[in-house]
Amino acid sequence: MQGAIYAEGLVKTFGDVRALDGVDLDVPEGTVLGLLGPNGAGKTTAVRCLTTLLTPDSGRAVVAGIDVVKNPNEVRRSIGLSGQFAAVDEYLTGRENLQMVGQLYQMRAKEAKARAAELLERFNLADAADRPSKTYSGGMRRRLDLAAALVVSPPVMFMDEPTTGLDPVNRQQLWEVIQELVAGGTTLLLTTQYLEEADHLAHDICVVDHGRVIARGTSDQLKAQTGGERVEVVVHEPEHIGAAREILAGFGKGETTVAEHTRKLTVPVTGGAKLLAEVIRDLDAQGIEIDDIALRRPTLDDVFISLTGHLAEASEQDEQETR
Ligand SMILES: Nc1ncnc2c1ncn2[C@@H]1O[C@H](COP(=O)(O)OP(=O)(O)OP(=O)(O)O)[C@@H](O)[C@H]1O
Ligand SMILES: [Mg+2]
Which of 194, 81, 191 is nearest to 145 (CA)? Predict the structure, then answer.
């Protein structure tokens, strides 16, 4: 069965730029899809096509069961959108902005007022509620924009970089709001530059680059594709790097890389915690003092970097560091 957000072969060009070059998506109802990709990958363009703000050149998209190109007005009634750049009316106060959205959606005045008050509280804007939003900081505007997207609880939500510019506390609170929404049955597509965010919130992840989906799967599936675990050791004395390297080479399943300036050695391994204990024992036996040692699984950041091709640059740098 087709999901609550479905796209097939979406293409959108701007002059010579193929911002979307045949994108397929399928987001099951009540789940979160994280759309990841470097700057210019096509994330915002995808969101804009799916939310009827742009018409795709070709391909098909169905949101909440409605064809995006054939029935854009109907789609708009079934979705909420928080864009990459906050879209609030600067001259209205935070409260007025939210009440206005409620009224646009034909809420009764009393209901719109109550909903606005609740959201202002929720997004830590109660104190600033009656100030014109042009006096808000960047993070406050962002929160107001997100609150506006949540005035009505549509079955399908799109959030383009919802937490960019938010401090850690506000980001955490937004994550909680998102989790509640999804627990209540909302389907969400979000884009983010914070891979930890995708790891935390998204059931499935699509990595896009140059307008194409270059990988998809759960966070764990993507990490497994990127490769296994590594031991990272930071030695205390620069003179010990050579000796530590020899010891690690004995445990490694691949080449040891060394970053001289941080005194960090990294080697791919298999064997987990038991092996880590052996490495520590051998380093200690040689009198090599360490500042830090860790067994590291690939993070989503590693996945992203290796998929989007920035790895080549990074490994060149590592080689120079080794010399
Ligand atoms: N209205 C437009 N006119 C011309 N080119 C555009 C337009 N909108 C997007 N593009 C181009 O399409 C490509 C994809 O842009 P898009 O904004 O979708 O990327 P993004 O993945 O959202 O990037 P970011 O992470 O920086 O937000 C880029 O090369 C961009 O320059
Ligand atoms: Mg964007």
Answer: 81
- Ligand 1 centre from 207 Cα, in Å? 16
User: How far is it, in rounded angstroms, from Cα 216 to Cα 5?
Assistant: 15
Ligand that lies nearest to the alpha carbon of residue 35, given by its number in the listed order: 1
pLDDT digits (tens, 9 = 90+) for 78-136: 898 887 666 788 899 999 999 999 988 889 999 999 999 999 999 999 999 999 999 99
- The helix (H) or strand (E) run that includes residue 217 is strand 212-217
310 pLDDT band (50/70/90 cuts)? low
Give the tens place of pLDDT for each residue, 243-264: 999 999 999 888 888 999 999 9
Ligand 1 within 6 A of 14 CB?
Answer: yes
Do residues 130 and 96 touch, judged by C-beta distance below 8 A?
A: no
Instruction: Pull the structure tokens for residue 81.
Output: 């959108």
Region of 210 (left: φ > 0; alpha: ψ -120 to 50; beta: rest) is left
* CA torsion angle 97 4 219 82 (round to 10): -10
